[in-house]
Amino acid sequence: PFSRFNTEILFHQKGLSLPRQVGRVVDHQTELLIAFGFSLIFLITLLRHRRATRSPQDGAEEAGIRKWGQFVISVRFIALGGLLAGFELLLFTEDANYLDVDLTTLALIVKMVESSWYLYWALVIHVFLNSYLWPKIAKSTGHPVPSIARTLVSIVLFVAVLTLIYSLVFGHSMVSIIATSGALTVVLGFALRELILDFFAGIILNIEKPFHIDDYVQFHIVRGLTVEGKIIEMNWRTVRLRDEHGNMVVLPNSKISVEHLNNMSTTSYVRARMQFYINPEYDPQRIIAHIEAAALDNPFIVGYDDPKLAPKVRYRGLENVGDSWVARYALKAALPHLGKRNKAFGAVWKKLWQRLHDDGISIDPTIHDHS
């Protein structure tokens, strides 16, 4: 009992812990009230609020709901800090005399409580970044902060906190941490070299910013193979895009960072070309007139009022395809981006097929028109 009593006194006198200083001037009932009050507030903020059955009517209401959610998060973490302080008050005052443990265990409990405070402040900073800072940066720049940047900051934050706990709380030398981390770095470097390449390539992509979320891009993966679509996510390892067929394509950062990239969202339009193979016996001007008419009033083609962008049709001469001679025609049109190519040329082909059918023209080179 004498040793435990002196241990309790040392708990109060060691360090500058605010709860231990408060414990000197408040009685035991006040300590219980503090612990119970903050526990109750914390539990209340954890309860799920029933969502409204209707969506927000306007932007102001949606902003109000978002601010209320941020307020609840703030109260929750304030209550969590009070809960930790209340627990420390109870543990390191009168209640310490009733713990039937040895001094080594008591010392370990002290270290665990001190570590909890380090982790608590790291968690507070992490939530502040995700709930306040990153949305504010996204609002001011017009682009969301890439997840790779958010993840990197969080990793650095928690690694730094764990290092402080290891050194300051448990009293280990920083030299041992550096030596251990050096050995682990060598081992992990060989085992995770592909992931490391993806990670640093992602950092470079976020610094150079060759594309942003919602940009329509085309990646040249290998010779003759391209992948194109709209960017939907950028994280620490991959870039995800939605192609023109609605499929999600996942590409590693290390691959796309060294290949040719075509960002088609940096201009107001892109050029696209569609080829037609028609029976060569028909008059080219007759076919060109049909193709030009089929390309009119297409909602996916832009620049009709601009002579430089208006759809153009060219006769490219004869070509031998499958042991048959065909006449080749090319339609060049301006599109908002290549994601509209299939829809634009699909609409052109449907109109052209109907016009050729109505005019008695066959696109099959083996069928001859004698009308």
Question: How does this model look, in words?
Answer:
It is a single chain. With about 375 residues, the chain is α+β, with helices and mostly antiparallel strands. Helix content is about 55%, strand content about 15%. It is built from eleven helices and eight strands. The chain has helices at about 1-15, 20, 30-45, 60-90, 105-140, 145-170, 175-190, 195-210, 255, 285-295, 340-360, and strands spanning about 215-220, 225-235, 240, 250, 260-265, 270-280, 310-320, 325-335. Helix 3 packs antiparallel against helix 4, helix 5 (about 105-140) packs antiparallel against helix 6 (about 145-170) and helix 10 packs across helix 11.
Which descriptors apply to this entry?
371 residues; alpha+beta; five-stranded antiparallel beta sheet; single chain; three-stranded antiparallel beta sheet; 53% helix; 8 strands
Please state how the strands of the largest beta sheet are arranged side by side.
4-3-2-1-5
Q: What letter string, H or E per element, gives the SSE order?
A: HHHHHHHHEEEEHEEHEEH
The pLDDT mean sits at 76
State the helical fraction.
Answer: 40-55%
Range of strand content: 15-25%
Per DSSP, the total helix count is: 11
How would you characterize the largest beta sheet?
5 strands, antiparallel
What sort of overall outline do the alpha carbons produce when their principal axes are compared?
elongated
Structural class: alpha+beta
Compute the gyration radius: what is it? 34 Å
Query: N- to C-terminal separation?
Result: 117 Å
Number of strands: 8
Poorly predicted tracts of residues: 49-57
